[in-house]
Write a structure and sequence with these properties.
Blueprint (H helix, E strand, L loop, with lengths): L16 H5 L1 E8 L2 E4 L6 E8 L2 E4 L10 E10 L2 E5 L4 E5 L6 E2 L10 E10 L2 E5 L1
Parallel strand pairs: 1-3, 2-4, 3-5, 4-6, 5-9, 6-10, 7-9, 8-10
């Protein structure tokens, strides 16, 4: 019996069963969370009392057709999400604050689902 290997690098694929079963949890009382590159997997949860989430996915090779799920829980603090031009971003959850996203500028690409829960704070999507 062989042990499944952990994925290496900044690449994700649909066939990696270990990555899809895992939810990364990041907790911060004050100050929020900053994530980039290989710190973000298929399922990520950030929790903070005061402070949002600053997430940079521009260096992550997410294959077309795949999906990342990011959940943010905080009283005060929004989400700043930096993605490639072809990434589709879907935002759900309840928060006082809007969503700033002009949509994908290139057709195709992966999907990022952001489930943002909080009292104050919106979701801002920046495309690079």
């Amino acid at each position: 019996m062989t042990k499944p290997q952990e994925p290496t690098g900044d690449s994700m694929s649909k066939g990696e069963s270990t990555a899809s079963d895992k939810t990364d949890v990041h907790v911060s009382l004050m100050g929020g969370t900053r994530l980039e590159g290989k710190q973000v997997h298929e399922k990520t949860l950030t929790v903070s009392l005061v402070g949002g989430a600053d997430i940079d996915l521009t260096g992550v090779d997410v294959p077309d057709g795949s999906e990342l799920k990011i959940t943010k829980l905080s009283l005060i603090g929004g989400v700043k999400l930096r993605v490639r031009p072809d990434v589709r971003v879907l935002v759900t959850g309840i928060r006082l604050g809007g969503v700033s996203d002009e949509g994908p500028s290139v057709p195709g690409g992966p999907t990022v689902r952001v489930n943002a829960w909080g009292l104050l704070g919106g979701v801002s999507v920046v495309r690079d």
